[in-house]
Amino acid sequence: MGAKMITVLRNQSGAALVIALIMIVVITLIALASSYTSIFEMKISGNIRGLTNAFYAADAGINAITAQPSSFPLISNTGASLNYPFQNANVQNPANIPSSNASITYYKNLEGPPRGGGYSAVNVSYAYFLVQCTGSDSAVIGVSAVNGAKVTLYEDVMQIIPIAQQQEGS
C-alpha cells in the first residue's frame, strides 16, 4: 500500500491547471480593484471640476457687480435696501447668473470710515454694502441636466460719497 501512495503523490498531472486558474482569479481581482479605483477618482475629479466652475461663476458675478458703480445706488438712511443687480440693464452678467442668485444689501447701521483704512471723515460719508452671489454648475447626464455644485460668495463693499461743500459767505 505504501508504494501505491507514493506513486499517486508523484503524479502531478493537473497541477498546472489549478495554478493557472488561481493566477487568473488573482489577476482578475487586481483588474477589478484598479477599475473601481479609476471610476472613483473620475467621480472625484468631476466633483472638483463642478465646484471650480461654480466658484468662478460666483466670482465673476461678484466682479461684475462691484465693477459697476451703478449697482450701488446712493441710498438714504431710511432703511435697508435689497436689490438684484442683474435686473439692471447697465450691469453686465458674464457668468449668466440668474437675477435671484445675486443681491446687494445696504448696511444702514454702519457709518463713518473703516478703522485703520487711512480715510478721513471730513467732507465725505460712507455707505456699506454686502454683495452676495451664488454660482452653480449643472452636470449633464444624457439629455437632462442634473443639479451640480453651488457656491455662494460674499463681499463687503464700501462706497465713499463726497459731501457738497457749502460756499463761504452764504
Task: Give a verbal description of the structure.
This protein has helices spanning 2-10, 15-66; strands at residues 82-83, 102-107, 124-141, 144-162. The protein is built from 2 helices and 4 strands. The chain is an alpha+beta fold and 170 residues long. Mean pLDDT is 77; it is low at 166-170. A 4-stranded antiparallel sheet has the order 1-2-3-4. It has one domain (13-162). It starts with a helix and ends in an 8-residue tail after the last strand.
**Helical content band:** 25-40%
> Which series of helices and strands comes N to C?
HHEEEE
Radius of gyration: 34 Å
Strand content: 25-35%
Write down the overall mean pLDDT: 77
Number of helices: 2
- Helix vs. strand class: alpha+beta
Concise summary:
With 170 residues, the protein is α+β, with helices and mostly antiparallel strands. The protein has helices spanning 2-10, 15-66; strands spanning 82-83, 102-107, 124-141, 144-162. It has 2 helices and 4 strands, in the order ααββββ.
